[in-house]
Amino acid sequence: MKTILKFTSVLLLMASCNTEAKKVTKELLKTVEQTEAKSADQPSEFDKLTNELLQKTPLTDEELLGAFPKELIGHPLEKVSAIPYMQQVVGQFGNRKISLSVADAAGKNNPLVTTFLGFYSYVPPATDKIKSIKIERDGIKTISEFKYNETEMRLLYDDRYYIILSAKAMDPDELWNAFDINALRGYKNLNK
């Protein structure tokens, strides 16, 4: 706000001095207006992503189940199930040590992206029991929550899939380093 006041004061001072300054001021204001108009005409990356997702057809439960990894971080898949009408699958690995949830954010489910990106712009401050971390890992935005020696990591994969990866006895860095993002490539192949 102070910068705007200073800028306005300088412009007024210049405008009152002479006609050349008035001419420069008018050109400067015109440039500012044109820049604002251009940015208003162009949709943001967020708007583009949500519009693209609205145009896509969500995967079926069978497609989601078929692409689900059979192994994760060296642990075999124990149990996987689809959540009816949610375009989401959840699986357990390694005696429930690791949990993976994959939700398709296409079509009517695109609020998953809105929520994730909203949380990504604001992460609550850490407490002595809960530590929240917002970081881009290998080009992927992640939000991690570490509490009671467990990590829950959320991410948006391939600009479509809302992923929740949970692990016991691992901090966020250990979990990310152990996790192979290629385990999700079956979903990337289905993203059309």
Question: TL;DR of this structure?
Answer:
The chain has 192 residues and is of the alpha+beta class.
Explain what the structure shows.
This is Lipoprotein. The protein has helices at residues 2-17, 19-41, 45-55, 61-67, 111-121, 172-178, 185-190; strands at residues 71-72, 75-83, 88-93, 98-104, 130-137, 140-147, 150-157, 161-168. The chain starts with a helix and ends with a helix. Helices cover 42% and strands 29% of the residues. With 192 residues, it is α+β, with helices and mostly antiparallel strands. The chain contains seven helices and eight strands. The protein has an eight-stranded antiparallel beta sheet with strand order 1-2-3-4-8-7-6-5, sandwiched between helices. The model has no long low-confidence stretch (mean pLDDT 83). The chain folds into two domains: 2-41; 51-190, Protein Transport Mog1p, Chain A (3-Layer(aba) Sandwich).
